[in-house]
Amino acid sequence: MNPEVFPIDLTVDRDLVGGVLRAILHTILFYRVYTNVKPKDVDFLEITYAAIDDPEIEKEVNEKVKQFERNLESHASQKGQYIFKKNEEFNTSPKIAVMFHEKRTKKAWFSKSEEEICWEQWAITIKTIVCRREIDQLKMRKDMNKQLNYCLLNIIRFVNEKKDHIPPITEDNKKNPFPYQIVIPATDDSWGSMLKRML
User: How far apart are CA 148 and CA 150, in angstroms?
Assistant: First the structure.
């Protein structure tokens, strides 16, 4: 079974990467975690988005955002990309993925085991820009507001329109029936090689 893939590509001011990534991850999880959730509103860049009011999810998202930012910093400093005199795009496009799984019972001759099958993945690629002048920062912030708003609306549109690939919920408990992973591939990994390792 091949998972449904939803690509997200954004160009982001380096200073806004954390907030943008948090908004995207929280929006995806809000619409794909199938348990009773307590919602909360979060404001960022004059946009209000919904998130799950859960300390564990908040902690995991924050840890992944920090890891993503550390990888970005590490890669940028290795390439000497902080000594530009004007606005510059980074040559790499860091990636992060959110993958949702279904637990299935795998039967063998004399035993049973559980396996996780990926049924959906969100492939997020972020190209970063360092704005040096204040006028460029203001312009980028305005553009980022439009990009992020469009991105979040697309996520909502995808989850409302694309439902055929979602497995049936077979357990009647309070836990999320579909475990998820937030994965950051190595900088030299392609989407394909990362996903083969994960599947």
Answer: 5
Say if residues 178 and 32 touch (Cβ distance below 8 Å): yes
> What's the rounded Cα separation, in Å, for the pair 165 and 162?
7
Read off the pLDDT of residues 190-199 as tens digits, 9 standing for 90 and up: 545 555 554 4
Coil/strand/helix, residue 10: strand
- pLDDT at 12 exceeding the cut of 80: yes
Measured distance CA(81)–CA(128) in Å, rounded: 11
- Pair 124, 158: CB distance under 8 Å: no
100 with 178: CB under 8 angstroms?
Answer: yes
Q: What is the 3-state secondary structure (H, E, C) of 36-99?
A: CCCEEEEEECCEEEEEECCHHHHHHHHHHHHHHHHHHHHHHHHCCCCCCCCCEECCCCCEEEEE
pTM of the predicted protein model: 0.81
Take residue 106 and report the two structure tokens written for it: 């795998």
Query: What does the alpha-carbon distance between residue 190 and residue 92 come to, in Å, rounded to a whole number?
Result: 11
